[in-house]
Amino acid sequence: MAHSWLSIVHAVAAVFAIIELGLTAYIASWWGGYWSFDRVNFMIFNSVWSLLVLAYVGITPIYMTSIFHKLAALVLNVITTIFWFAGSIALAVAFGHSGGTAAAAIAFGFFLWALFMVLTVVDALESLRSRGHNAPATSNKPSAYPGV
């Protein structure tokens, strides 16, 4: 049950990241392609980064389980959440007064921040629930060396 709604959240985040990539690429093209704000460039990076993280977190545990690590997925989700929050705030400061494409890019940035926050919280709770369960039920403590 939990995996079905998480898959939907992953898919929605991927679609929103593609939309955000298009919006911020359009904003970057406003200056003729020769120059753009660092904030816009960072949001383009966030979109590409998010698609890579979603590929690792969503697809790797299903098809390539040998290279998937739960702690790495948690760290990637935390970093991506921070990136989206910082980038959305920076974009809102730069283009908060304008409407249209910039406002849509800001809104989708905050939507992606919220989606990655949900994924991070769920991943952290899963990590906390499953920690320490890999230990064997009976411990085989080595006995002290009896001497000669």
From TrEMBL:
State the InterPro entries in the record: Marvel (IPR008253)
Q: Which residues form a coiled coil?
A: none
- Record-linked Pfam families: MARVEL
**UniProt-annotated location(s):** Membrane
Q: How does it sit in the membrane?
A: Multi-pass membrane protein
Q: Does the keyword Transmembrane apply?
A: yes
Write out the entry's keywords from A to Z: Membrane, Transmembrane, Transmembrane helix
Q: Does the keyword Membrane apply?
A: yes
Annotated MARVEL domain ranges read 7-121
**Record field: transmembrane:** 7-28, 40-59, 71-95, 101-122
Which GO CC annotations does the UniProt entry carry? membrane
Q: Which PANTHER family does the entry link to?
A: MARVEL DOMAIN (PTHR37451), MARVEL DOMAIN-CONTAINING PROTEIN (PTHR37451:SF1)
User: What is the protein's name according to its record?
Assistant: MARVEL domain-containing protein
What's the source species for this entry? Neoarthrinium moseri
